Amino acid sequence: xxxxxxxNALGVCGSKASIKALGSAAAAHMYVQDASEVTQSYVALLNxxxxxxxxxxxxxxxxxxxxxxxxxxVKVGALEALFxxxxxxxxxxxxxxxxxxxxxxxxxxLKLAVPYLSPDLEAQLGKVLGTPAAxxxxxxxxxxxxxxxxxxxxxxxxxxxxxxxxxxxxxxxxNGVSA
Length: 179
Hints:
- This protein is mainly alpha-helical and about 180 residues long.
- It has helices spanning about 5-15, 20-30, 40-50, 60-70, 70-85, 90-95, 105-110, 120-130, 135-150, 155-160, 165-175.
- Helix 3 packs parallel to helix 5 (about 70-85).
- The longest helix has 14 residues, at about 70-85.
- The radius of gyration is 19 Å and the shape is elongated.
- The N and C termini lie far apart (about 60 Å).
């Protein structure tokens, strides 16, 4: 039996008792996706636990994985587990993701937040659009996401950004986006 087989088995069938062992193995691999598949197995384990009766046991490990990993796919997997385990973590995690330079991660965080969408989250995202210091690419991601999911409550914030110094927003405006 190889280590990969053990990691895979724990990721698929493991319980909360497997978190520490598999988490330590993933940490030893610096939480990267590699041939050992330990990190992928750890993400799978956390998501399985988050979907079950021991969901709360996945929160801290998912937060640790989110903070420690540099890879988009691993971060997205950690977000999935975190959101499933504790919906109260959605807003702060999404707002934090918007500070990332990794567009894939930012967009995934927004998409994963859809089942948890609330007027409060919409308003917070509108505030990000109104913040001059906010990352212009993140603003574009928010506006695209709001359009995709028909978040009309923040239309004023969206329109205020259409004339911003951002080529992607200018392309949207020039292609017929209007109120």
